[in-house]
């Protein structure tokens, strides 16, 4: 996962991509990133130069039909749920968020566990739609998701700004200053007055105190680095209007 190896000096990525270029090296690097132009966006010239002989394979986001098709084809017993119980539900939920088929697998696994637990209490039964619905509600109703839904409007806008910056840079870490530019633009869209720097820092501090964000402990202020303490999928789900 290439974006997780990013550092300020990029020494880790440079050493990694320089290794296959050494004489008698038998190492092959397969790097994955969520942004197809990640090398152009974040790599220094000395790192990008190590990719001269590399080739790139682009994968599009899976839509509902592709998610269902891939998951049903997997030889797992629990995925019979997917084939029998309203497969479009899984596909639509997952495709609307990120196109990550692992969400379908998690839902099926959890639905099977819920059914297994219920079986110990009552008469034996098979996995039903009620178990699937409960698994979906449970997956997207974590304390973090509820905290986001109960956050103030400006705190929610700040989280939207973080997602926007992550999509722009292709890296799941950003400075408060980078996020601030998106925040101001979103405030204009919402017809709100842009906050001051001190107000931005206060919002960031509150979200960090709630553990929704991981905030760098320093006195760099706008140059402090920020990461999400939950997945982008969960943030998008929590911010989605009913």
Automatic annotation (TrEMBL):
Subunit structure of this chain's protein: ORC is composed of six subunits.
Database matches in InterPro entries: AAA_lid_10, Cdc6_C, ORC1/CDC6, P-loop_NTPase, WH-like_DNA-bd_sf, WH_DNA-bd_sf
Keywords (A to Z) from UniProt: ATP-binding, DNA replication, DNA-binding, Metal-binding, Nucleotide-binding, Nucleus
Protein encoded by which gene: Orc1
Subcellular location: Nucleus
Organism: Hypocryptadius cinnamomeus
Cdc6 C-terminal domain: residues covered: 159-239
GO BP of this protein: DNA replication initiation; mitotic DNA replication checkpoint signaling
Protein name: Origin recognition complex subunit 1
């Amino acid at each position: 996962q290439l974006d997780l190896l990013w550092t300020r000096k990029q020494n880790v990525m440079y050493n990694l991509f320089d290794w296959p270029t050494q004489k008698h090296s038998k190492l092959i690097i397969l790097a994955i990133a969520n942004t197809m132009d990640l090398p152009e966006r974040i790599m220094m010239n000395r790192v990008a130069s190590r990719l001269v002989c590399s080739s790139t394979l682009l994968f599009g986001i899976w839509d509902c039909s592709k998610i269902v098709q891939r998951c049903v084809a997997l030889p797992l017993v629990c995925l019979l749920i997917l084939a029998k119980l309203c497969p479009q539900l899984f596909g639509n939920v997952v495709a609307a968020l990120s196109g990550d088929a692992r969400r379908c697998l998690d839902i099926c696994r959890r639905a099977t566990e819920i059914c297994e637990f219920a079986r110990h209490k009552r008469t034996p039964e098979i996995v039903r739609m009620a178990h699937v619905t409960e698994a979906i509600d449970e997956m997207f109703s974590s304390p973090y998701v509820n905290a986001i839904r109960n956050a103030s409007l400006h705190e929610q806008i700040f989280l939207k700004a973080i997602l926007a910056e992550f999509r722009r840079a292709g890296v799941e870490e950003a400075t408060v200053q980078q996020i601030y530019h998106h925040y101001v633009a979103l405030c204009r869209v919402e017809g709100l007055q842009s906050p001051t720097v001190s107000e931005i820092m206060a919002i960031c501090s509150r979200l960090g105190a709630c553990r929704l964000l991981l905030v760098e402990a320093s006195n760099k202020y706008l140059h402090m680095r920020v990461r999400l303490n939950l997945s982008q999928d969960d943030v998008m789900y929590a911010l989605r209007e009913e």
